Amino acid sequence: MxxxxxxxxxxxxxxxPILYIGNKNYSSWSLRGYLASRLANIPFDERIGFLTSQGxxxxxxxxxxxxxxxxxxxxxxxxxxxNDADSWHVVWESLAIxxxxxxxxxxxxxxxxxxxxxARSVAAEMASSFxxxxxxxxxxxxxxxxxxxxxxxxxxDGRPDIVKEIQRVQQIWASCRAFVARRAGDGESEDQGFLxxxxxxxxxxxxxxxxxxxxxxxxxxxxxxxYMDVIEKWDLYREWVDAGVKEEAYIDYYDIEGVCSDxxxxx
Length: 267
Fold this sequence. Notes:
Low-confidence stretches: 1-11, 260-267
Order of helices and strands: EHEHEEHHHHHHHHH
Structural class: alpha+beta
Mean pLDDT: 89
Number of strands: 4
């Protein structure tokens, strides 16, 4: 029997997780999955499906989304099983991706038990609420309207529900920052300006909302503006936004009209 020199036997290439996402310029939920994955510092590849003005039912996008998850929605994280090219664990929904990653990367949530509970509560509220804001004001990093823009003002004047949601977002941010202030009073605070001092999944969930506030020039408190300044300088956020504005795919009813007030047009 001939001995095999192990040094000459190549190992199969290690497969990496794949994050299925949509346009970086428009897909706020994709950003949440991306930030969570980057916060966990895992190696992963991106698979992007581009929405166009033809909408989410275009065959090319539908194939991408249907391949991504059983719900046909993104983001979704595919985790390889061994070296079988066809074997993957699929994790879909942004919060599920966060919790999956946090099992091995606990830095995604605050260290303190009560802060973790609060962070999970506000992250879940973000995932399940603010439908008026989300359905009326689309994510668009290319767009920046001045405060008091007539189109925005006209919508907000007739939509007290959205005004209430804008106020609620700022209440959430203040409630998170209150934990940091209390820790500072005890001499224990590590404060970089994020919701719980250092970046966590809570920031990943609310970062797209910062984009909406700044895109449409919503009125905000000094504390909310200070937090948004931190997010806009965050390197992980910036790498996504900078890539988004360079994308060649355009959706005319976002980029031309500026404000999309028809929920039927939403992705």
